Structures
1.
Amino acid sequence: MKGLKLVALPENGIRTSFKVGSVEIGKDFLFIAGPCSVESEEQIMEAAKLAVEAGANILRGGAFKPRTSPYSFQGLGRIGLKYLREAGDLYNIPIITEVVDTRDVYLVAEYADIVQIGARNMQNFTLLTEVGKIDKPVLLKRGMNATLEEWLNCAEYILKGGNENVMLCERGIRTYETFTRNTLDLSAITALKELTHLPVIVDPSHATGRREMIKPMSLAATIAGCDGLEIEMHPNPKDALSDADQQLTGKQLKDLIKDVKRTVDFRNTINLNYIS
Ligand code: PEP
Ligand code: MN
């Protein structure tokens, strides 16, 4: 792909990795887990406890929520960031949360260990330029109708700004299928491994929108070669204020992480680069 000066996989094949807490993202398999939204202090505290017990290494939770309807829960904002930080500190787990507005980049970066750019903002170039200036890693989600080239150009904006700690997150693309919320593009994982040195994360929660599909798709994404997963988990999924149908319980997350780890071990015994 032309014009990708900074994100393209170099000839020497060296890939990016960076440390967040005790995990070396890009080298150690990453488990990001937590609720779609931070709903209350109690909820995120309980979620943090469950995430740590399940074996997750990063806690997620949205404080600023990009919702399709203006009448849906929009997130707690600044107080949500504070609750998430407190939960992360109490359970000694780094936190990730989304920034949706250029004006909030420094506020979010002050609280979060990793800043997330959501699918709806993938091509918000002013936001990308702004997160290019911060000293926190960025997780850049794929826009729901973005090509790989468009997506990688967005990552290029962030690196061009001086921030090299970027990971990509495949979260499903829009197709004609409506049974699932989106269609998980598993082939994107393999393609990105050829195209870029950046770590590739997969979010099967937003990709499928269906709880029962999250584990199978996590296992498939793992075999395809991803560097980690972002999974929605809620202490009481059915009461969640957003994305209730796709959040796992703590117990389900624990079961998923156990089997993904076994799959990573298996993956290490097979050669994914069989054509060379
Ligand atoms: C999220 O992860 O909270 C989210 C809103 O996902 P996406 O941007 O992929 O829709
Ligand atoms: Mn969600």
Note: The radius of gyration is 17 Å.
2.
Amino acid sequence: MQNKFFWGNSVSSMQTEGGWNEGGKSLSVYDVQKPAKDLSDWHFANDNFHNFAEDFDLMKDAGMNMYRFQISWSRVVKDGTGAWNEAGIEYYDHFIDELIKRGIEPMICLYHFDMPLYLAEKYNGFLSKETVKAFVRFGKEMVKRFSAKCKWWITFNEQNLYSQPDIAFRIAGYVKGDKTTDELYQIMHNVMTAHAQISNFIHETSDAKIGGMLAYSEVYPASCRPKDVECARQWDEFINFSLLDCFAGQGYSPAMLKLVKTKHIDMKMLPEELKDIADLKNDFLSFSYYASTTVDSTNITEETVPNYFLIKGKKVNPYIDSTEWSWQIDPAGFRNVLNKMYQRYRIPVFPIENGIGVREKWDGENIIEDDYRIKYHKEHIDAMLKAINKDGVEVLGYLGWGLIDILSSGGDMEKRYGLVYVNRGNRDLRDMKRVPKKSYFWFKKVIASGGNDM
Ligand code: BG6
């Protein structure tokens, strides 16, 4: 294990903060979403905007030494592109100081699906190079303001989701159009360009470290039929390796560039952008990991572009269990992913999201006995320790997702990941009291023992 191994918590702003219309914040696409039946809106989240000191105390008490959070673009820049909102910047400045005071290293994320509403409506989000310009301006300013005290950065949460057509358009702030393959590739490339420009700027102006980040779910072939195996390999190539190759300084994968050429996909790549991507070299490779799945080639034709493979061929793995939300729990896949990233690139790897979403009720008195969560984390930490100790993988730390309950990505407060319960429901905000669950005390022991006592 590293001399300083990071144990901590990881969140996004819209799932955590609340304060949606306070402190000069402008609107993001989330703020105007009407909640679907039995889901929450995005206005209050777990009220971290007003309450972060209590949450930092809990993290410190658990022994955590890193917190990955997001600077909300809409909170610090008017409409994502206008004047700096100094009140918003001041808020994060204080927030960061409070973390550092408690011995918790900040990791800043700059974008987690919450496009400023103005940029979504005016430019269709990251489909436009105008949005790239606005994002890079915002990112560079945050680097100027905070890189002296924040040494760990990521730009995009789960950057490979911008290569997946069922998700990319929504998270890129794309609000109108036909969602074509050309547009998918343009968004993917614009996002990579923005990532490269901000990464290069960090390296030119500071000693801070910046990583690329993927949502790296292991995708197995559904059978040993050669066609299934080929589809699983191509999926990895187009969704994961093509981006990791860029993060590692090698540019886009040859397989992807070849397909773009033969299929005449119009990626709108400019020579100066390719130069920025060629100059990119990230300091660490980070990823979220929750589950794995399989791909079945039966309905995948020769013409199918690999980015669409899971839409046509996703299949349940009969060998592993699922959560209530059908996420298949697979710690062995976690060890695979750690190995795939490190053995190929030899750049330190960092799992910065892991955890299990479960519906839980608190009776107002007794501790929540979340043994299922302890089991989940234990098996995944164990898989990580095997990657470190048996496979020689260099791992920087382990951050759990939403360890103080937050809204799920769909806005469901009842899908909880926390070691700490937050007393609110989807429509009933109650008192938002923080109540440690059994897993909190277990995780504290794990951290104190450096992973030895599980
Ligand atoms: C990750 C996202 O993909 O998964 C988070 O970065 C999300 O935003 C997390 O919350 C867990 O997913 P969900 O849908 O269960 O909240």
Note: The pocket of 6-O-phosphono-beta-D-glucopyranose is lined by residues 12, 15, 157-158, 215, 288, 353, 357, 401, 408-410, 415 (CB under 6 Å).
